[in-house]
C-alpha cells in the first residue's frame, strides 16, 4: 500500500465535488475516481418524494439523497458526470452547490474562495457548447449591495460572462446554509433555461401543464410497456409526450374537442419524434368510441376552470368524464388526474361506484395549488 502523503486534489473534483469515501490506497491504479458532487434539484412543491424516487431509480448507488433540503427541492450527493443530471424529468432545475466557510459574502472575493467560485461556475459552463451562457445573474438577499455588485462584476470578468440587467442565463444563488451551519452556500444552475422547459414544446397552449408536473404524474401511473394509455382532454399533448419519453406503451391515445389544441398536440408530438406512436382524436371525453374495459392507464389534466373552462362547465364535465373513464378502464386500471377543482373532484371520487381514491398530492403550479388524484378502477 502506498504511504499516505498530503492529499492531492483530483482533477475535476474542485467544483463542488467531494472526495469519495474510502481509503485512497483502496483505489486501483488506473481506475478513474468519480467526483462526488453536491446537487440540489428544485421541484414543484409537493412533488419532492416523487422527484427523490426518480433520482434514486435513475442513478442508484451513485446518488445519495441528503436529509436536509429546503421545501421544493431534493438534495443529493452524486458520483457521475454532471451531464447525466440534465436527463431528470420531474425536476424544474438542477444546481451544483458548494459550501463556503465565510462569515459574509464579501469574503468570497478573497483569493482562495474566489478561485473556487470561478471553478464552480466553469464546471457548469463546460457542460454546454461555448457561448451558451452569456449573462450572469446572481440572486441573494441584498443582491444590489455594493459588495454583491462587485462580486458580480469580478465573477463576470473571470468567467467571460456579462452581468445581466434583467434575466440571466447563468444563474447563481447565494444563501445561508439550510442546515444551519455557519457560512454561505453558492448554487449554480446547470442549464441556461429551466429543465422543465422542453425542447419538444414547439406549440405553447395557454393552460399547458408544466412538464415536470406531467412527468411526476406519469411516474404515478407506474408506466409499463404493455399498457394502453389514454389521455382525455389532452390539450397540447404534454402528458402523452412525457409518457412516451420514459418508455414505450402498447398504445398511447389522446383526445380533445378543441381542434386548435389537437393541432398543437400534433406539432409537439412530432417535435418529440413521437408522431408515429401517438394517436390523437377529436373525441368528446364524455363519450368516446373506445371499447369498454380496454385501457390500462388514464391520465388527464382537467380544465381548472380558470384559463380553460369554467366552474359551471366543470360541474357538468367532471362527472361525465369520470364515468366514461371508468367505462373504458380495465378493472384495476390506474387513473391519475390533476385539477384545481379540489372540492368537486373529491366529492365525485368519494362517492364514485367504480373509482377508488388511493392518494391525493397537493402541488404548487403558477401560484395555484391543484391536487393530483390517484385512483384505481374497482372490480379487479
Ligand atoms: C387544462 S387543458 C389540458 C392541457 C394539457 N395538459 C396541456 O399540457 O396542454 C384541458 C383541455 O380539456 C379540453 N376539453 C374540455 N372539455 C373537453 C371534452 N368534453 N372533451 C375533450 N376535451 C375537452 C380543452 O379543450 C383543453 O384542451
Walkthrough of the structure:
The chain folds into two domains: 17-189, VC0802-like (2-Layer Sandwich), CATH 3.30.2130; 211-377, Rossmann fold, CATH 3.40.50. α7 packs parallel to α8 (342-350). The protein is an alpha/beta fold and 380 residues long. The strands form two sheets. Strands 1, 2, 3, 4, 5, 6, 7, 8 and 9 form a nine-stranded mixed sheet that branches. Strands 12-11-10-13-14-16-15 form a seven-stranded mixed sheet, sandwiched between helices. The termini are far apart. The longest helix has 18 residues, at 311-328. The protein contains eight helices and 16 strands. Bound molecules: S-adenosylmethionine. S-adenosylmethionine (SAM) binds next to α5.
How much β-strand is present in the residues?
15-25%
Level-1 CATH class name of the largest domain = Alpha Beta
Could you tell me the mean pLDDT? 90
In CATH terms, what is the fold-level topology of the largest domain?
Answer: VC0802-like
Cα Rg: 24 Å
pLDDT < 50 stretches = 1-14, 16-27
**Strand tally, please?**
16
> Structural class, please?
alpha/beta
Taking the sheet with the most strands, its summary is:
9 strands, mixed
How do the helices and strands follow one another from N- to C-terminus?
EEHEEEHEHEEEHEHEHEEHEHEE
